[in-house]
Amino acid sequence: MGRIGQAVARRAAAFGMQVHYHNRRRLRPEIEESLQATYWESLDQMVARMDVISINCPHTPSTFHLMNARRLKLMKPEAVIVNTSRGEVIDENALTRMLRAGEIAGAGLDVYEHGADINPRLRELKNVVLLPHMGSATVEGRIEMGEKVIINIKTFDDGHRPPDQVVPSML
């Protein structure tokens, strides 16, 4: 769980929600404790038991349609899914079908599988909230992004591997 996931966990806790998470690597015990977060090794088992699923991961080949039709069907009918990470992480056609059929209670999206080309069937649904992706549009967010760029440039200039290097397998 990256910094964004941890920020989401803090917001969820502020609303009295229990925080559960799945990640490639488990957090250090002190971070889990500070977030009062419960780790699930199995994403499928976690998804089947949660009331609210918040997606907070990058788009990589391994996360493309991470929430595919099979996994979406594991969700409880009263569950809500929120995606503020990358649109390609959810199979939008499967999500739309399930929302229409009442198999998932609702969705909150600010990213879409085909970028700005929002699925028109999603727009018709009353159990979906659609927003523009603007989570980083804060002074703090933009400053942090700029500082990250400077660190990467300086690290590369010093002859070291930049910490946020884009590799071909991520494209």
Automatic annotation (TrEMBL):
Top-rank lineage group of the source organism: Bacteria
GO molecular function: glyoxylate reductase (NADPH) activity; hydroxypyruvate reductase [NAD(P)H] activity; NAD binding
Domain D-isomer specific 2-hydroxyacid dehydrogenase NAD-binding, first and last residues per copy: 1-135
UniProt KW Calcium keyword: no
Gene3D superfamilies hit by this protein: NAD(P)-binding Rossmann-like Domain (3.40.50.720)
Keyword Translocase set for record: no
Protein name in UniProt: D-isomer specific 2-hydroxyacid dehydrogenase, NAD binding domain protein
